[in-house]
Description:
This protein is of the alpha/beta class. It contains 10 helices and 12 strands. It has a 6-stranded parallel β-sheet with strand order 2-1-3-4-5-10, with helices on both faces.
Amino acid sequence: MTAVLVLGGNGQLGQALGRARWSEGTVVHRPGRDVIDLARPESIATALAAHPYDIVVNAAAFTAVDAAQDDVAGAFAINATGPAILADATRRAGLPLIHVSTDYVFDGSATGAYPEDATPQPLGVYGASKLAGEYAVLSGNPRAIVLRTAWVISPFRANFLKTMLRLAAERPALRVVDDQRGSPTSADDLAEAIAAIVPRLAGDADAPTGIYHFVNAGEASWCELAREIMACSASRGGPSVPVEGIPTSAFPTPTRRPVNSRLATGRLTRDYGIEPRDWQAAVRDIVADPAAMPTAPA
Ligand SMILES: NC(=O)C1=CN([C@@H]2O[C@H](COP(=O)(O)OP(=O)(O)OC[C@H]3O[C@@H](n4cnc5c(N)ncnc54)[C@H](OP(=O)(O)O)[C@@H]3O)[C@@H](O)[C@H]2O)C=CC1
Ligand SMILES: Cc1cn([C@H]2C[C@H](O)[C@@H](COP(=O)(O)OP(=O)(O)O[C@H]3O[C@@H](C)C(=O)[C@@H](O)[C@H]3O)O2)c(=O)[nH]c1=O
C-alpha cells in the first residue's frame, strides 16, 4: 500500500487529486487547512506523526496573485516558509515530497518555452514567494520534486475558465488580453501526472528528482483560451459571447504578468514517460463538466 498525504486538498488541484486514477493500493489523505496549516508549522509535524505516510504532495499555496502584492508576509509564510518546514520535516521522516510551483517564477523575456533549467526572475510577490519555496524545498529534501505548472483550470474553485463562463452569462462581450502567452493546464491532467509519478518516487530512493514542468501541450494567449472556452460552451448550449482581444495596457492589474510563460515539459517525458495532451482537449472536458457552469452550486 502507498499512503499519500496531500496538503491543499480542497483547492483546484487538491480536488482533482481526490478523483485521479491512482495505482492500485494507493490511499490518499487530503486534510483541510484546519488540520494542516502551512502558517502553523507545528500542524505539519503533528500530521506527519499521525499516520505512516509514504509520500507528501504539497498542493497548498497562497494563489491570489494580486492580493500577494499587498500581503508579502502572508504570501512568503505560506509559499516559502511553510514549504521549507515541510521539506525539512519530510526529509527527517525519510519521505519524498512533490511540491507544486508556477510559471510566474519567470519574467516572460524568453522567446520560446522555458526549459526546466531556465533562470527564474519573478515579476511580482506571488512569483517571488513561490521561487523562494522552490529553493527551500530543493535544498531541504534531496528526494523532492518541484513540479511547475501554469494557467490551471478545472470545474473546481475559482479559475480563469470559470470566470469566463460566469462573465459570459452576465455580459454581452468579453475583453481579454491577447499579448500574454502561456500554457493552459487542466488540474485533472496535472493530478494524473502526479498520480503517475508517485509510485516511482515513493518506491525508489533513486528515482529522479529536481525541477519538472507539467502543462498541457500547445500554447495560447488568455484571449485565445477565452475564445476556446466560449466555443466549447456554445457547442453544449452554455453561455457564450464574443471575445475582443486587448493589449495588457487596456486591462491594468496590480501585478505584472509575464508576456510569455510557456513551459517545456521534456524532462518529465524523458524521466517519467508522461506525455501531456493538447490544452484544447482539456478545455472541452472541463466545460463538459456541469460543475464548471455558473449555474452550478459553488
Ligand atoms: N491556479 C493556477 O493557475 C496555478 C497554480 N499553481 C500552483 O499549483 C498549486 C495548486 O494551486 P490551485 O489548486 O490552483 O490553488 P487553489 O487556490 O485552488 O487552492 C489552494 C489550496 O491551498 C490551501 N491553503 C491556502 N493557504 C493555506 C495554508 N496556510 N495552509 C494550508 N493550506 C492552505 C487552500 O485552502 P482553503 O481550501 O482553506 O482555501 C486551498 O485548498 C499551488 O502551488 C499553486 O501555486 C501553479 C500555476 C498556476
Ligand atoms: C477576468 C479577466 C482577466 N483578464 C486578464 C488578466 C490577466 O492578465 C489574465 C489572467 O487573469 P487571472 O487573474 O484570471 O489569472 P492569474 O491570477 O494571473 O493566473 C495565474 O494564477 C497563478 C496562481 C498562477 O500560478 C499562474 O500560472 C496563473 O494561472 O487575464 C482579462 O484580460 N480580462 C478579463 O475579463
